[in-house]
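Dear colleague,

As promised, here are the two records you asked about, laid out in our usual form so they can be pasted straight into your sheet.

NAME FIELD: protein one
SEQUENCE, THEN STRUCTURE:
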Amino acid sequence: MAIANTDFKIIKPLKNIPNTKNSVNEVFTIIKDYSIDSVVIGLPIFPVSKKPNNLYPLVKEFSNRLKKLISQELKKKIEIYFVEEDYTTELARIKFGVSKDIDKYSATIILQYYINYHLGGNYDNNT
């Protein structure tokens, strides 16, 4: 998981959240604690064919559960956006030179893709 500050135009890795029964609640707690107003989730899609891989249904289910929990508990709508996560793990290894906790670094790249494309931003990935 990564977080962006749109006022200061920075993105930083936050933490790895393993895929468990409690991961939706853990992400929800971060959304609440940081007053997050939108969420960007990486979609596992095969780069060449652009077809969903076997994790795609799990990601969609996760996002639906998260959206429902946000609606019930926070009584507000938070937008959830999706970005193809093609090669973000490999890019994170190259860009940040890390292999431990790689998912949070991959998340910064996914968030960077979203911001650059949809918000026209040029944010820094700070580690």
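NAME FIELD: protein two
SEQUENCE, THEN STRUCTURE:
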Amino acid sequence: MNHQFSEKRNKEVEKSHLKMAVFNEPAILVNLGSLYQPNIDPRSMYEITKSLLKVNGKRAKKIRLVCAAYHGFIKEVYIVSGWSKPHFWSSYSFDGEPAPLELREKYVGRSVASYWEWGSQAPIKFASYVIKGKERKS
């Protein structure tokens, strides 16, 4: 994606009537990139999300939600049930399941484009969240 197209797309998203995701709990956003397919089955999306998400232990323990994103929009939300650390990795991987309908309706389809700047290579972003009117970092 070239810079001009990306910048134009982000401005269109900001100006559109689509709602930005506002998190009320610690969350991680995972950009699925070219691994996403429009007709992907739920299990494959979970496995791809899980394979891309590796975090350190301190940050992992705070995270409740994992959001799979594509082109700046949330495609699926998972509730974290635990974190595991394979002996050959220095980072943790999440275990989870699709979020309840209430959370899916709150987040799926919402924009998270503002978390990724043009040229960002990182597939993972820690979402800011708001509790009692105060913004916090995941």
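A couple of things worth noting about protein two: The chain has one domain: 3-21+42-137. The chain has a mean pLDDT of 81.

Best,
R.
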